[in-house]
């Protein structure tokens, strides 16, 4: 999708019909800059894009039910409608699209009422005609750029750091899956499960009694799995909510005068506790591994002693070492001549004497086995003291870690008691709320663990029943056909699920690597971004030799979010060009725009420069809405040569004492704030020559 132009009419502070904003640019001049002071309409313009395409608004957009310009409403008579619309022209897949979303407002006894939204979409034909597609506008637009992904391409930079918050991870995960096409696989699996259920229901009606009983048992287990799975999703959402509360309460304690040091001490102790718990888990795993892989050596003491006793007995009887080989005796008997020259004819006394050596000669093989086993027995006996040393060391480690954790828990308990009994009432209340939240987290985590075990047990039982059903002999031809269909559906579900899992793991690894590259270019810190399977973004500090989590600042979270969005856009664009990688891709294009409102807000000058330098490398098209202070200096220097068009939002203020403002661009002064000629506020769009 490439944005070409935007027009507005009576949309919020934009009075009347605005001039057309040319957004197309070129490959070399792919940035459109829109300057404006706070309140001039930058956020309104951002929401014009999201409204016209998806009927969505950003979090910063207030009173979304009132879109029509106030001045336009005031200038018409009662009952006369005022039109408000946004029109966007864009290109996709070699075709041009024009979408207009509108709304009307009118006065009814001094009360403003607005109508429902009306959306129209047109596609340009080769002969220049504009026609309406047969599908609904929302369906066409969502096929080009799914609504769930709009936050990646149209975002408020001042609130962008919220994208890395834990309560957003489910939304981010689902949107990312749609972007890379995994949603196609998920829908396929869901559809096949429905088909499989239909086939199984059919099998019930024609199967024998035993088959029906197995299927009913399987149905009951599958219903239970579905119920428990739904509860797990609810638990995960509740956990996220309580974790957010826990983080907010802890932050308030850090900021509360008189107890902030106690909370900081608790933060440090909790970090130590987490590290010690991880060490304890590893020590127990090491002990388990040592016992499972080397513990058998201790139990072989009697067996090795018996082996040595047998070998000693052979030596005492002179049977070892063996002095003659069986093959040598067989050769003499075959040639029928002894080494002394005597003939060896079968049935003679000489033949019988030589043949008797075969029994003794067989001990040569025994001797070779004894030598080989003796070396192995020596090795096993040598491992026993090493095994006990390793076990004792890990047990000491475990005991030390348990003791250390006990001390940490005592210290945490003291801090909790101090906060509970603090003379500061706010501290008492916050600690009580924290205790309540931690209790809920503990109970939910326990229930989650129980449910995980239920899901595991039931899944195993379902697989076993499926195997029984497969093996069950069906008498009728219809039963055989029905069972084959069920088996085929089940096999396809397994294969597609495996492809889905493998592709998701591969994509996340590639995305994490790209995020690290982008973050490394922008940030001056030595931290490393990590992206887990739930698409949670965190920062790690590895400079100490052991990765430790970092509490990111607002600026770091903004850089992390920009890196995440930039990496997604860049990677999807790259993969969409590759037929193999883009096998399941959602949007069938390798052109992706970014529309950003104030992306440099919380950043210092160094990071503004790095962001301004990196963003044009990641996106095919950039529309940047900035204030004068955000633009000047390093951002202007980095982006200047890539600008195709530039506009200024001139805000007309009704305040008599308003302070006028202007900006100097391309050798000319352009006003940013002026005194309004009437009692209304409105914004004018001015193109920079």
Description of the molecule:
By secondary structure, the protein is an alpha+beta fold. It has a domain of 245 residues: Rossmann fold (3-Layer(aba) Sandwich), CATH 3.40.50. 56% of the residues lie in helices and 17% in strands. It has 19 helices and 19 strands. The strands form three sheets. Strands 1, 2, 3, 5, 6, 7, 8 and 9 form an eight-stranded antiparallel sheet that branches. Strands 4, 10, 14, 15, 16, 17, 18 and 19 form an eight-stranded mixed sheet that branches. A three-stranded antiparallel sheet has the order 11-12-13. Strand 11 and strand 12 form a beta hairpin. The longest helix is centred in the middle third of the chain and has 58 residues. It starts with a strand and ends with a strand.
Shape by Cα distribution: elongated
Helix fraction, binned, reads 55-70%
Number of strands: 19
What is the CATH C-level name of the domain at 2-145 and 587-687?
A: Alpha Beta
- The CATH superfamily label of the domain at 2-145 and 587-687 reads P-loop containing nucleotide triphosphate hydrolases
Report strand %: 15-25%
Query: What's the pLDDT, averaged over the residues?
Result: 82
Give the low-confidence spans: 581-588
Q: Might you state the CATH topology name of the domain at 2-145 and 587-687?
A: Rossmann fold
Query: What is the CATH architecture term of the domain at 2-145 and 587-687?
Result: 3-Layer(aba) Sandwich
Number of helices: 19
The biggest beta sheet, please? 8 strands, antiparallel
CA-atom Rg in angstroms:
38 Å
- Terminal CA distance reads 27 Å
Given helix and strand content, the structural type is alpha+beta
């Amino acid at each position: 999708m490439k944005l070409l132009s935007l027009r507005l009419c009576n949309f919020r502070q934009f009075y009347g019909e605005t001039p057309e904003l040319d957004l197309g640019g070129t490959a070399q001049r792919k940035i459109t800059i829109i300057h404006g002071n706070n309140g001039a309409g930058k956020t309104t313009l951002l929401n014009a894009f999201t409204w016209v395409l998806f009927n969505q608004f950003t979090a910063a957009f207030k009173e979304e039910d009132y879109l029509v310009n106030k001045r336009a409403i005031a200038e018409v008579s009662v009952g006369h409608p005022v039109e408000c619309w946004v029109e966007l022209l864009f290109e996709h897949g070699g075709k041009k699209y024009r979408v207009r979303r509108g709304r009307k407002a009118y006065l009814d006894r001094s009360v403003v009422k607005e109508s429902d939204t009306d959306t129209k979409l047109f596609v340009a034909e080769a002969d220049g005609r504009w026609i309406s597609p047969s599908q609904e506008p929302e369906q066409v637009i969502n096929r080009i750029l799914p609504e769930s992904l709009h936050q990646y391409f149209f975002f408020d930079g001042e609130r962008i750091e919220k994208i890395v918050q834990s309560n957003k991870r489910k939304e981010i995960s689902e949107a990312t899956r749609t972007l890379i096409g995994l949603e196609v696989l998920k829908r396929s699996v869901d559809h096949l499960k429905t088909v499989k259920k239909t086939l199984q229901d059919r099998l019930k009606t024609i199967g024998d009694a035993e088959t029906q009983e197995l299927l009913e048992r399987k149905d009951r287990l599958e219903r239970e799995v579905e119920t428990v799975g739904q509860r797990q999703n609810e638990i995960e959402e509740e956990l996220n909510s309580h974790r957010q509360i826990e983080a907010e309460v802890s932050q308030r304690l850090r900021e509360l005068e008189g107890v902030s040091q106690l909370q900081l001490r608790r933060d440090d102790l909790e970090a130590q506790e987490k590290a010690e718990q991880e060490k304890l888990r590893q020590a127990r795993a090491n002990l388990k591994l040592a016992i499972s892989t080397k513990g058998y050596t201790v139990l072989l003491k009697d067996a090795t002693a018996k082996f040595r006793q047998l070998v000693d007995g052979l030596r005492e009887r002179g049977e070892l070492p063996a002095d003659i080989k069986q093959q040598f005796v067989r050769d003499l008997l075959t040639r029928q001549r002894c080494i002394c020259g005597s003939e060896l004819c079968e049935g003679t006394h000489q033949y019988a004497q030589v043949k008797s050596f075969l029994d003794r000669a067989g001990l040569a093989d025994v001797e070779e086995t004894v030598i080989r086993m003796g070396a192995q027995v020596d090795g096993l006996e040598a491992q026993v003291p090493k095994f006990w040393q390793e076990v004792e060391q890990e047990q000491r480690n475990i005991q030390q870690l348990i003791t250390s954790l006990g001390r940490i828990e005592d210290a945490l308990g003291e801090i909790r008691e101090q906060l509970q009994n603090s003379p500061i009432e706010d501290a008492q209340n916050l600690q009580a709320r924290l205790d309540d939240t931690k209790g809920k987290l503990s109970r939910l985590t326990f229930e989650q663990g129980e449910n995980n075990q239920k899901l595991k047990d039931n899944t195993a039982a379902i697989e076993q029943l499926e195997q029984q059903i497969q093996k069950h002999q069906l008498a009728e031809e219809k039963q055989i056909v029905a069972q084959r269909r069920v088996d085929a559906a089940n096999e396809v579900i397994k294969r597609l699920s495996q492809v889905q899992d493998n592709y998701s793991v591969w994509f996340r690894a590639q995305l994490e690597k790209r995020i690290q590259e982008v973050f490394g270019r922008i940030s001056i810190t030595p931290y490393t971004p990590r992206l887990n399977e739930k698409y949670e973004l965190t920062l790690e500090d590895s400079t100490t030799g052991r990765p430790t989590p970092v509490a990111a600042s607002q600026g770091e979270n903004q850089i992390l979010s920009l890196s995440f969005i930039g990496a997604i856009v860049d990677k999807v664009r790259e993969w969409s060009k590759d037929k193999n990688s883009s096998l399941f891709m959602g949007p069938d294009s390798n052109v992706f725009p970014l529309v950003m409102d104030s992306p440099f807000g919380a950043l210092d000058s160094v990071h503004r420069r790095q962001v301004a330098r990196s963003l044009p490398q990641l996106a095919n098209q950039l529309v940047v809405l900035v204030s004068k202070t955000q633009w000047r200096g390093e951002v202007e220097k980095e982006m200047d040569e890539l600008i195709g068009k530039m506009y200024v939002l001139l805000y007309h203020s009704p305040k008599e004492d308003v302070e006028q403002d202007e900006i100097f661009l391309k050798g000319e002064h352009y006003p940013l704030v002026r005194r309004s000629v009437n009692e209304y506020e409105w914004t004018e769009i001015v193109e920079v020559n």
